[in-house]
């Protein structure tokens, strides 16, 4: 590890990897540190992503695609199921990834582009100079290194501490975190090309249960519940065990995955002097779906591009890095986050009766585009009364 | 004080994100708590597995 780099990236998930790759490709010096001994593990993800989102970054590769998804079902609290299918049957709408392989591939691409990568290397404090971040103290294998960097990218995920140490409040309100548990299950009777989402206050209060297939009889079966609904005897794992017992009593559990997903608004500002915050660390996961892979990759790349321009100008002040913050907010992703936050605020308060009525109103939706926006739009078309509750949403739709 | 049951903890970091004091930290595969903990119990509620408990001294 050198004493100085143009850029230091904290965290080796998709956000950090894209940031490191982007900067390294410009010929600048980059150091990426990952505190875990291995990239991509333990997995903390349901591993689903929209097809069109992924192809923004790299061509699909069977190496890290577990399954291609063709349709989805939304299951009401009373077990009535609504099918969501693209108009052209057979066309894939999404992938369930193998994150262990996927994340490793992304970091490998960053390394191949010239980024230095260090595992089991943890940032323990920022180096502050004149009130601004100027690098970080890194601990690895019992050694402590002071690493100076012109720009630092905080890509340290849901448990992000780096921005907090640098003076930015990143605390997620209890009611705005989804607390999640997931089993990778085998020997279960599922449609291997269909994702399923189960709604209801009994099944998953202020959240949902998902089944994301990873092959024949193999799937991520998981749940997220609102943090405010969690407590002794009614935690994410308790709800998941209940669901699995009812739905897949013969299934076998081959992996336990836990995690937290923020469903709050993004940080009010995602830059500071010499620092940019990306992905989950910036609270950029989708408030409805909880999806965050694309958002992390997109902001990781954008943050790096902005930093490169700033480095070329010789000014990496907060003002010089602000274009990153401004651009993602007006992007398709930024607008979706704003809209989906507003929709989430309504949906988490709906009773089971109301959820039943909404799902019953349509048995099948043929989607032009497989997105939360098209789903919401169709649901509202079939339930005009929803518009009353979503009044303030009209401007988004 | 906050008791961390490492045998139950899945080291997911959900608790770290809701801690208002920044008292928790996920170091690789284990969770630590420092002296800034105020025993507010928010982490105890959010834990998906039930690995945290505020114990009265």
TrEMBL record, chain A:
The keyword Oxidoreductase applies. InterPro entries: DGGGPL_reductase, FAD-bd, FAD/NAD-bd_sf, Geranylgeranyl_Rdtase_fam, Geranylgeranyl_reductase, GGR_cat. It catalyses: 2,3-bis-O-(phytanyl)-sn-glycerol 1-phosphate + 8 oxidized 2[4Fe-4S]-[ferredoxin] = 2,3-bis-O-(geranylgeranyl)-sn-glycerol 1-phosphate + 8 reduced 2[4Fe-4S]-[ferredoxin] + 16 H(+); CDP-2,3-bis-O-(geranylgeranyl)-sn-glycerol + 8 AH2 = CDP-2,3-bis-O-(phytanyl)-sn-glycerol + 8 A; archaetidylserine + 8 AH2 = 2,3-bis-O-phytanyl-sn-glycero-3-phospho-L-serine + 8 A; a 2,3-bis-O-phytanyl-sn-glycerol 1-phospholipid + 8 oxidized 2[4Fe-4S]-[ferredoxin] = a 2,3-bis-O-(geranylgeranyl)-sn-glycerol 1-phospholipid + 8 reduced 2[4Fe-4S]-[ferredoxin] + 16 H(+). Residues 101-172 form the FAD-binding domain. FAD binds at residues 15, 34, 45-46, 48, 99, 123, 280, 292-293. The keyword Glycoprotein does not apply. A 2,3-bis-O-(geranylgeranyl)-sn-glycerol 1-phospholipid binds at residue 372. Its EC number is 1.3.7.11. Pathway: Membrane lipid metabolism; glycerophospholipid metabolism. Keywords: FAD, Flavoprotein, Lipid biosynthesis, Lipid metabolism, Oxidoreductase, Phospholipid biosynthesis, Phospholipid metabolism. GO terms for biological process: glycerophospholipid biosynthetic process. Binds 1 FAD per subunit. It is an enzyme of class 1 (oxidoreductase). GO terms for molecular function: flavin adenine dinucleotide binding; oxidoreductase activity, acting on the CH-CH group of donors, iron-sulfur protein as acceptor. Residues 177-261 form the Digeranylgeranylglycerophospholipid reductase catalytic domain. Is involved in the reduction of 2,3-digeranylgeranylglycerophospholipids (unsaturated archaeols) into 2,3-diphytanylglycerophospholipids (saturated archaeols) in the biosynthesis of archaeal membrane lipids. Catalyzes the formation of archaetidic acid (2,3-di-O-phytanyl-sn-glyceryl phosphate) from 2,3-di-O-geranylgeranylglyceryl phosphate (DGGGP) via the hydrogenation of each double bond of the isoprenoid chains. Reduction reaction proceeds via syn addition of hydrogen for double bonds. PANTHER family: DIGERANYLGERANYLGLYCEROPHOSPHOLIPID REDUCTASE, GERANYLGERANYL DIPHOSPHATE REDUCTASE. Belongs to the geranylgeranyl reductase family. DGGGPL reductase subfamily. This is Digeranylgeranylglycerophospholipid reductase. It comes from Methanocalculus taiwanensis.
TrEMBL record, chain B:
Keywords: 4Fe-4S, Electron transport, Iron, Iron-sulfur, Metal-binding, Repeat, Transport. GO terms for molecular function: 4 iron, 4 sulfur cluster binding; metal ion binding; oxidoreductase activity. Transmembrane segments: none annotated. InterPro entries: 4Fe4S_Fe-S-bd, 4Fe4S_Fe_S_CS, Fe-S_Ferredoxin. Residues 1-28, 29-57 form the 4Fe-4S ferredoxin-type domain. The keyword Repressor does not apply. It comes from the Archaea. PROSITE patterns: 4FE4S_FER_1 (PS00198), 4FE4S_FER_2 (PS51379). Pfam families: Fer4_7 (PF12838). This is 4Fe-4S dicluster domain-containing protein. It comes from Methanocalculus taiwanensis. The lineage of its organism: Archaea, Methanobacteriati, Methanobacteriota, Stenosarchaea group, Methanomicrobia.
């Amino acid at each position: 590890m050198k004493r100085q780099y143009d850029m230091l990236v904290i965290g080796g998930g998709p956000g950090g990897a894209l940031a490191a790759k982007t900067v390294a490709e410009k010929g600048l010096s980059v150091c990426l540190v990952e505190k875990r001994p291995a990239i991509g593990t333990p997995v903390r993800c349901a591993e689903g992503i929209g097809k069109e989102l992924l192809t923004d970054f790299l061509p699909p590769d069977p190496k890290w695609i577990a399954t291609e998804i063709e349709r989805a079902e939304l299951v009401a609290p009373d077990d009535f199921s609504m099918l969501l299918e693209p108009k052209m049957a057979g066309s894939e709408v999404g992938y369930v990834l193998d994150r262990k392989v996927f994340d490793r591939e992304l970091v490998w691409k960053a390394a191949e582009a010239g980024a230095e990568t260090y595992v089991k290397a943890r940032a323990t404090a920022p180096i502050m100079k004149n009130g601004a971040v100027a690098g970080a103290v890194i601990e690895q294998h019992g050694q402590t290194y002071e690493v100076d960097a012109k720009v630092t990218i905080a890509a340290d995920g849901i448990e992000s501490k780096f921005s907090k140490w640098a003076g930015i409040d990143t605390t997620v309100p209890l009611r705005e975190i989804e607390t999640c548990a997931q089993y990778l299950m085998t020997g279960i009777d599922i449609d291997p090309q269909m994702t399923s989402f189960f709604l209801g206050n009994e099944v998953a209060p202020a959240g949902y249960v998902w089944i994301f297939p990873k092959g024949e009889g193999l799937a991520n079966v998981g749940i997220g519940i609102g943090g405010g609904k969690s407590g002794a005897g009614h935690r994410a794992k308790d709800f998941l065990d209940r669901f699995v017992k009812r739905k897949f009593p013969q299934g076998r559990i081959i992996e336990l995955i836990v995690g937290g997903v923020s469903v709050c608004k993004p940080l009010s500002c995602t830059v500071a002097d010499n620092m940019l915050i990306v992905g989950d660390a910036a609270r950029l996961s989708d408030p409805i779906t909880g999806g965050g892979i694309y958002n992390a990759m997109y902001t990781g790349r954008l943050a790096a591009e902005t930093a490169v321009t700033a480095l070329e100008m010789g000014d990496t002040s907060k003002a010089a890095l602000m274009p990153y913050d401004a651009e993602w907010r007006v992007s398709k992703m930024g607008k979706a986050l704003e809209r989906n936050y507003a929709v989430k605020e309504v949906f988490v308060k709906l009773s089971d009766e109301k959820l039943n009525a909404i799902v019953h109103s349509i048995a099948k939706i043929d989607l032009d585009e497989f997105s939360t926006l098209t789903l919401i739009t169709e649901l509202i078309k079939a339930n005009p009364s929803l518009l009353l509750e979503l009044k303030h949403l009209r401007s988004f739709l | 004080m906050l008791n961390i049951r490492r045998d139950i903890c899945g080291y997911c970091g959900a608790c770290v994100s809701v801690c208002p004091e920044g008292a928790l930290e996920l170091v690789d595969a284990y969770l630590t708590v420092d002296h800034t903990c105020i025993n507010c119990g928010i982490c105890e509620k959010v834990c998906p597995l039930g690995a945290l408990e505020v114990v009265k001294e």
